[in-house]
Amino acid sequence: MSFYNPSVSVSLKYKSYRIAIVTAQFNFQITQKLEEGAIASLKHHGISEAQVTVVRVPGAFEIPLTAKLLFEKGFDGVVAVGCVIRGETTHYESVCNSCERGVMDVQLSYQRPIGFGVIMTENLEQALDRCGGQHGNKGIDAAEAMLKILEIKEKLNETKSYQHLTQGSFQ
Fold this sequence. Notes:
The protein contains five helices and six strands, in the order E-H-E-H-E-H-E-H-E-E-H. The chain is of the alpha/beta class. The two termini are about 25 Å apart.
């Protein structure tokens, strides 16, 4: 079964992008599948293996800083994959909020896309459903989102007048 979203069409003009996948190692039985999905999606959309660097970090909390460091080294886009499963303490909320906010801050500061494939679930079953189970593979979705923003950025950079751009121009 393929989980590629048929409504996501990516047409990148520039094929020399440097892409990083930042994978949290905590819950690695889940995050490894998310990473594999992201790699497969990038390949599916014409990104070569030589253009992709995989960086593994201890957990989701470390993803934003790693993405920032990668952007400082010239990477064009990042796919962030991780898995945070609710436990018995409030640690879950802290990690989820810090990761999400950190990723958003980094991509806005650097004006480069980060596909957010960090799943935050109540239990292991929900996580399994989102790394290739009945809800697809969120690593694939994150890679496609990042590539789509790169495509939109290309089109905006090539356009001298924005008045004629419509939503249809970016589909």
